[in-house]
Amino acid sequence: MLLAPLLALGLGASPASAGVATLCLAQPGQTACVSGTVGNRTNPVEGADVVLRDEAGTEVNSITTAADGKYSFQVTEAGNYFLFVDPESLPDDVEIIPPAPRFQEDDGSIRVPVKLGRTATPDLEVRSVDYDAEGSGFGEQIVQSIAQGLRLGLLLALASVGLSLIYGTTGLSSFSHAEQVTLGGMVAYGLVNVAGLNLWIGILLTTIICGATGYVQDRLMWQPLRRRGLGLTQMMIVTIGLALAAQYAFQFFVGASQQKVVVRTFDVVEIGPVRMTDMSFVAMGVALVAIAVVGFVLLRTRVGQATRAVSDNPALAAASGIDVDRIIRFVWIAATALAGLGGVFYALVVSNGIRWDTGMQILLLLFAAVTLGGLGTAFGAFVGAIIIGLVVELAGPLGAPGDLKYAVALVILILLLMVRPQGLLGRAVRVG
Amino acid sequence: MNEFLGILDAVVGEAISPDTAAVAIAVIGLNIHFGFTGLLNIGQAGYMLLGAYGMAISITYDIPLAVAVLIGLVVSVLFSFILGLPTLKLRGDYLAIVTISAAEIIRYTGRLAAFEDFTGGSQGIFGKDYQGPFMDLSFFGSGSFDLLPLNYRDAGGGAGLRVVGLLVAVAAVVGIVVIAKRMKSADGQAPKIGTTATPKLVVAALFVVLFLALFFSFPQTEPRTSVDGWWVRVVAWSLVGVSCIIVFLLVRSPWGRLLRGIREDEEAMRSLGKNVFAIKMQALIIGGMFGALGGMVYVLTGSVQADSMGRQLTFFAYTALLLGGAATIFGPVLGSIIFFSARILVRELSGAYVPNSIMSTQQTEQFSYVVVGVALVLLVIFRPQGILGDKRELRFHV
Amino acid sequence: MSEPTNPSTPSGTTTTDGQGDLADPAARRALMSGVAQVPGAEKPDPILSVDRITRHFGGITAVDVEHLEVQRGLITALIGPNGAGKTTFFNLITGFDKPSSAGKGAHWSFNGAKLDKTSAPKVAKAGMVRTFQLTKALSRMTVMDNMMLGAKDQTGESLAKAMFKPLWHSQEGEVRAKAEELLARFKLLEKKDDYAGSLSGGQRKLLEMARALMTDPTMIMLDEPMAGVNPALTQSLLGHIQSLRDEGMTVLFVEHDMHVVQHISDWVVVMAEGRIVAEGPADTVMANPAVIDAYLGAHHDTDLGDDDLLRDEVVKDLHHEADEEEAARRDAEKGKR
Ligand SMILES: Nc1ncnc2c1ncn2[C@@H]1O[C@H](COP(=O)(O)OP(=O)(O)OP(=O)(O)O)[C@@H](O)[C@H]1O
Ligand SMILES: [Mg+2]
């Protein structure tokens, strides 16, 4: 009973299993399935002709993928099968990423060992043709990954700097911050895709609206709770509850599928070995500017100095005439606005759309970034975010399969904590 | 009326389902971590998943059930060491971040195609691959059961008996509430665990009565298991009972006092010569073992599916814990029961009374979770001590 | 207690041959009379001896102690202006912090045992127990539970035995009886079933001291035990501390109130800017120019030993500013948690 909804929940994380289960169910001892997605779930490839052949080379079945990119075959005998995607059926600029050599066949098909009662899900991810056409050696892959890592890092930084500021000024680890990121994408989807606003006006409005949610939250909830002296752990659990409610509210209103902020695709720009959409460069630029502004505000303005003072020592700050509540409200507004901005661009250039759990998927990266840099230091969070972004993107080419690239970031975090508990830029706390 | 009974059936069914029991066991473990010791473990679902994998994979390799369970527990202990060694000397936030990360890593790894032979990848391990040895132990035979004049199968049909059962259940609830109130009003002094045992025993007895009454009034069929879910249900709830007893015995002891001392102030404990690190590690291990046990029970009726034990489940566990009352013995159990049945109630009510044009069936599901989330927020704000917790403890900030 | 033979003991006649002796003020004075009144002076029978401990925080040097010995069986006061490094010094020698000079000549020993790499719990187990400047009462536990936590070597604290009450039941009774006795001494008995969080600031100081005593320490280190305690209670607290000494315990305490220091301490160690600047009996050390320098800076001509002056505005003014800062810091620390 419980399982069903939870399975549905798990959807977010397991793209293939849920959809496939309905198409082909492997019966132990009788049948087996070969299924998966051409492309990936955020970027499925429509219209790809997928053929499954058996060991003798005879065709078992063939499928042309629909908009979701899914394919699924049922077989009744164990053994080696060969999966082939017709390159002609793929869009001109993409090709299937070759599998590991031991699964690679001379004719370009992929060997799939099949066992009865199991579902094999071979990867049929795609990449752009030029990627390889340029003779993309290992070095170039690395360069490309570094560029992508910087992109991811900068976008993560938008959210994690705010998370860190909130932690610094209030001591709160806000688990709902990831939902603020999703909110950004969702609002932009509503404004730009649904309501048809111009993208740039949409982004601006989204940032403002998200900032407003920060204001409202602090006004209606956090400030009263601080006044009541609610413990930090309790407040943290409040954020967990908020995150939960927000995720299902997104599903309630928008549904469980991925939504694009803009329908059109972006042009690809090439700079040396690096290939990214023009939007990616814009996103990185905007993120850099936004973070520079935050840095400037923190270092050079009165509000920023006050913020740092509050982070350092709230009581002393209050005693020296700083309106701590006002500063915290400012931090909430800034943090949620930045998270929203980050969410829009994340949806535009990284995840190619927004879904109810987009934010949740990067929550851990955000925490990792903030912790890595040292809890509560905004600049640490920035550095941490860049490092995490690079690690995540580099983990793939360096050999971490699938989602495990996220795990690599977390392992690095754990290792760092063992060596330098206070984080990269943090300070040790005083006892007694 | 039929609609109403249907809703009631669904709600009670959820309340006494083995899955609820499984989560309750995990929450009992979480209570040792968070409630008593103050360890912010946000990866309890990871423990559950490890326990489930440990047991299920072992059984698929024809290892006897008892050993398989042991393997599951040992794996969770190892996991505790891995998590604890780097973090237990640091501030609490770090444990939180590391546990949530580690739980995710386990989930990612479990889903990895490379380990498909062991974990079944994202499909998971099917129930029939590992549930056999457990089901074979059942001594319930066909699944029907007689207790004096009551027969588990029949009661479902007899409306008269059902009404009686309901009345008994209501009486038990009233009794529990009255005694609980009395215990509260006789405060003025902080309660000491162990000294006010008599009313607590009565409450426990009433819980048993309540459970039996519900049990016989609302028979359940669990289609996925061969023995009507009877066996699973009894084992699951017995384990809940045993877990409660173990926790009670542990926390009333000087060792339990150490845990609470650490929750309050680690430095003070260190200054008194207590090896805080070792004690926290012990607490992490014990609570983690309960988590693993909960995970094993959790998969007895379904399959071992990595994504069914993700972060959400940990968050549910926290909600249940806070609802029931952290640092209490029965809080986790009560909280789990109320949490899951309340969600079903919301879902069924909105399904039955809100027109489909406003809320589709899918949306009632989501709506119920939104309500749960908001409820968690309101609960923490307005009744942070939960149902069974002691309000006075909250006056002092930690 | 084995006595390390100290060849350079100034007065061979007055070694600690019995604790009863030290209950007698004259004996104590005689014991310390031969000790040179210089920083790092050697004591006839040091229970704690510290060498070359330094601790830096960023640019500042919080502690830089070349050598210090604490005499067994006496009350030693550690005084110094705010920020002198007293608390940090406590943290260092009790294992709550690590010296920057660790491994580079830092060395300290207690009761003949090296403590260089000992963790805080082990230091406490060895018999050196400290209290905190910012009290650490275990708020959501009863006063009684707070006390019972202090007791050492409890069978029921082992996980393996915890579940079986008969194994620890009788010991629990003994611990409880001892706790009640101590609570009675500290006038907290009627509070024993209240949550520690409901106690007043002064009562918490008392509780923390009583709790520390539950461990049967050989040496107790009190960080500002009198701060926030009313004068009447201070009197009785001082009585307690003296009786602890008379029972043979060594006491090292930090205090800002010079009257308290003069009243009960047998020896005074003065710290300033991380260094030990002077040592000596309470009545003479105040006149030491280094001390005056440390406390008063420019006010060179004032005599700190002059009791009246201490009550006067001079010191108050000087302390006032620093106290405010200290209060803010304390609040901040509370807020942070
Ligand atoms: N964790 C820390 N980080 C940075 N600086 C510290 C830390 N702990 C102590 N200090 C600094 O070390 C110096 C000594 O502090 P300490 O608390 O030891 O002084 P104190 O003598 O106990 O003062 P008081 O009499 O006010 O209690 C101070 O300047 C303080 O700011
Ligand atoms: Mg101090």
Automatic annotation (TrEMBL), chain A:
The keyword Transport applies. It is a multi-pass membrane protein. Its main location: membrane. Coiled coil: none annotated. The chain crosses the membrane at residues 152-175, 187-215, 235-254, 281-299, 330-350, 362-392, 404-420. It is found in: Cell membrane. Residues 1-18 form the signal peptide. InterPro entries: ABC_transp_permease, BCAA_transport_permease, Ig-like_fold. Keywords: Amino-acid transport, Cell inner membrane, Cell membrane, Membrane, Signal, Transmembrane, Transmembrane helix, Transport. Gene3D superfamilies: Immunoglobulins (2.60.40.10). Pfam families: BPD_transp_2, CarboxypepD_reg. Belongs to the binding-protein-dependent transport system permease family. LivHM subfamily. PANTHER family: BRANCHED-CHAIN AMINO ACID TRANSPORT SYSTEM PERMEASE PROTEIN LIVH, HIGH-AFFINITY BRANCHED-CHAIN AMINO ACID TRANSPORT SYSTEM PERMEASE PROTEIN LIVH. This is Branched-chain amino acid ABC transporter permease. It comes from Nocardioides cremeus.
TrEMBL record, chain B:
Coiled coil: none annotated. CDD domains: TM_PBP1_LivM_like (cd06581). The keyword Nucleotide-binding does not apply. Keywords: Cell membrane, Membrane, Transmembrane, Transmembrane helix. It is a multi-pass membrane protein. InterPro entries: ABC_transp_permease, LivM-like. The chain crosses the membrane at residues 20-42, 63-85, 159-180, 201-218, 230-251, 277-300, 320-346, 367-388. It comes from the Bacteria. It is found in: Cell membrane. This is Branched-chain amino acid ABC transporter permease. It comes from Nocardioides cremeus.
TrEMBL record, chain C:
Residues 1-16 have a biased composition (Low complexity). Residues 1-25, 317-337 are annotated as: Disordered. It comes from the Bacteria. One of its GO terms (molecular function) is ATP binding. It comes from Nocardioides cremeus. Transmembrane segments: none annotated. It holds the Pfam family ABC_tran. This is ABC transporter ATP-binding protein. Residues 48-298 form the ABC transporter domain. The keyword Transmembrane does not apply. Keywords: ATP-binding, Nucleotide-binding, Transport. InterPro entries: AAA+_ATPase, ABC_AA/LPS_Transport, ABC_transporter-like_ATP-bd, ABC_transporter-like_CS, BCA_ABC_TP_C, P-loop_NTPase.
